[in-house]
Amino acid sequence: MAGLTARRARRQRAFRWTVLLVLGVFFLLPLVAMLEFTTRDGGGTWRLLVDWPRLSATYPDLSAGIVASLGQAALTALLMLVLLVPTAIWVRLRLPWLRRFVEFICLLPLTIPAIVLVVGLAPVYAWVTYFLGGSSLTLTFAYTILVLPYAYRAIDAGLSAIDVRTLAEAARSLGAGWATVMWRVVLPNIRSAVLSAAFLTVALVLGEFTIASLLNRTNVQVAINFLGKSSATMSVAVSLAALFLAFVLLLLLSLIGGGRRGGSEAAPLSTAKESP
Amino acid sequence: MNESGVAVRLKELHKAFGSLHALDGLDLAIEPGELVALLGPSGCGKTTALRVLAGLEDADAGQVLVGGRDVTSLPANRRDMGMVFQAYSLFPHLTALDNVEFGLKLRGRRRMPGRAAEMLELVGLGAFADRYPHQLSGGQQQRVALARALAIRPQVLLLDEPLSALDAKVRVQLRDEIKRIQTEVGTTTLFVTHDQEEALAMADRVGVMRAGRLEQLASPADVYQKPATAFVADFVGLSNRLPGRVDGDGVVVLGTRLPLVSPAGRGPDVAALVRPESVEVLPDADGPHRVLTVSFLGPTSRVTVSVADRLVVAQVASGRLAELAAGTPVRIELRPVPVVLDTD
Ligand SMILES: Nc1ncnc2c1ncn2[C@@H]1O[C@H](COP(=O)(O)OP(=O)(O)OP(=O)(O)O)[C@@H](O)[C@H]1O
Ligand SMILES: [Mg+2]
Hints:
The structure holds two protein chains of two kinds.
Chain A: H1 2-38, H2 44-50, H3 52-58, H4 60-93, H5 99-111, H6 114-132, H7 139-160, H8 164-173, H9 178-189, H10 191-206, H11 210-214, H12 220-227, H13 232-266
Helix pairs in contact in A: 1-13, 3-4, 4-7, 4-10, 4-12, 5-7, 7-10, 8-9, 10-13, 12-13
Chain B: E1 8-17, E2 20-30, E3 35-39, H1 46-54, E4 61-66, E5 69-70, E6 81-84, H2 96-106, H3 115-122, H4 138-151, E7 156-160, H5 168-185, E8 188-193, H6 196-202, E9 205-210, E10 213-218, H7 220-225, H8 230-235, E11 240-247, E12 250-253, E13 256-259, E14 269-274, E15 279-283, E16 289-296, E17 300-307, E18 310-317, E19 329-334, E20 340-342
Parallel strand pairs in B: 3-8, 3-9, 6-7, 7-8
Antiparallel strand pairs in B: 1-2, 1-4, 4-5, 9-10, 11-12, 11-14, 12-13, 14-20, 15-19, 16-17, 16-19, 17-18
Helix pairs in contact in B: 2-3, 2-4, 3-4
Bound molecules: adenosine-5'-triphosphate and magnesium ion.
Residues 46-47 of chain B line the site of magnesium ion (MG).
């Protein structure tokens, strides 16, 4: 009996490692190739990439794209949080019958191809350009729509994990107004969900190309694409760096999620954590 | 510590969810400092009544008066009521102490040093101040919730089945503790439960609800011994429905004349509700009835006897079970305590 389970465990472990290996080769091989390609010149490309003044002098379009992307990522994360967090909480607390509808609206961008989105956005952006100018930062509006499905999922999952209604009612009966309920009761308890939403947003925005390119705005991906025609080495190096940044963000994200779980596991009594 | 409580009055409350009338003209008056238990079957509107009183739900019609002041249109956060919920409701990101302090800080009272710690001490959890909710057992969490509700010195304390998620032993222990603390603090309290034993044990007065209305509001003894309606008699405690015949101001059941709690409305053939503890079962070789089943319940036990074509439940001291095995021929006598007639 014990031998049987041991053998099965061993077989499962072997299977797991095989899968991991195949996937690892599949994903890592291109990255290794990229790294190899960008280091053929003895590291000159990477030295240039980390030397900001020299980089912006050599490739002004690229540095502009990087700045634009960072700005877009920060603004999109901010706008997404400002719009989505209060809405999601409010819908849970006061307008539960609207939940289906809000969920539908938030998931809609997932079903619309970027190219179709652009066709619809083009006339809107004519107005945006008219009022706010042609800055690449205006892409924030389009990106906020684009990240809605992912961010909404993350925040909604966070809200599902706590008994928002009861917590809010307890706080209200203790004298808290709605603002206090949101800031001091609900938000601290969905902090990791909010961080997830923000990280996902940043990762998505850093990788966006289609909309920026078709709306004639710039960001890091557009710049990479443009650069690919003149300096292949540098464009590949920047891609790799962007990928690495996104990877680090996602790793941080999983650490935050895992850290919380680890914390409650370490507790001596973890019974009755969930409400009935 | 002892603060004089305030009177609470619910006046003609109506609340409908769609076509369902959760509250249907509920009237309830609670004396200052009193602990009233609302008792009733599931879905009769107990929680709704409590939530309307707390301001968490708006009534369609009617008034809520606290200390003579009309608070009907006041939002929950300005009603000054402490509430303990059935679901665990501690803020997960705060320690026990911070949970208790939450309401104090909000009130802007210059952080009364020691008040929160003192409240934790009162519920016997002084040593657990730094624990987070997930590090506390269910019973401990509900105690912290009680301390949190009491810390703000509320005018009214509201408890919605705070013990129902706990196991039997902790439940009884915590129930006695809540009663002790409530007596000590003197806050007017409304306690919702569907456990009649809990209601009878804790309350100064018990309100029995049915379909959004109050059927009776009286002391535990009166609710039990002099139920106002057949519903109350049936819901509070176990009752035998036995055929009887009205005879003046009494009723004759199984050959015994019993007094009535309230005069008979109609007659002469009626159904009387007789408590199991009013039924005496005596072994009798020539007895007309037989013991059907026996269930051991601890100090007392329950014996079912078949009488004609119906079952009569009797409560007997467990010491007598030896002489009342199933199949024993017996005769039945009724103690002459007042009974209620079932008019439904
Ligand atoms: N938010 C709501 N929406 C619709 N119906 C509701 C709502 N809240 C309560 N009800 C209905 O109102 C009636 C009374 O509910 P309430 O929660 O007051 O019952 P209760 O006496 O507390 O029952 P229990 O002992 O099961 O807790 C029930 O039939 C319930 O289904
Ligand atoms: Mg209820």
